[in-house]
Structure prediction request, 192 residues.
Amino acid sequence: MRGRRLVLFILLLIFWFVISQEADLQHILAGVLVAFITVWFWQDLDTRQPGILSFRALLKLCRCLVLIVWYIIQSNIAVIKTLLFSNPPVNPVFVEFEPGIKSKWGRILFATCITITPGSVTVDIDPETGRFLVHALTEETADGIVNWRMIDEIKSLETQMQRGAEHVVDNGRLYGFDTGNTRSGNYRSNGD
Prediction:
């Protein structure tokens, strides 16, 4: 846990230096103070922070990022064609569908992918059912979103992350947290 805090402290300090663009004593002390206070306030979240991604999950995430960049380029071209040449004609539509993504982070990732892709915006996600309400510039765009390859990529990433989570022990009880996912029993090695 201390290693994570140290890494977070260093990353925050580096970020501070990047945004302050100064390296005098006043900026260094202010950066150290802000980074330390931030890490100190967030220390109780150590047990609830996500684990480190496996190599396979990291590759899948990188694949998703490459695909979304490619889809953004394609969508930019499609929006330009629609706006300049009316091919296909602008016909804004709302589409409601359920992609079958189960996790909250998967739904947020998919909603972000829809929104950053030109020509579509995620309007709402029903947290109970996972139904998405999306506004699209054309009917073609709406059909493309419903059958989008990113849905399968995110589902695959969810499966990979779930496999990795099966091997993680929730240490919440050791620190006084009962997260609801903690199995009954004592995981302390000293038998107390």
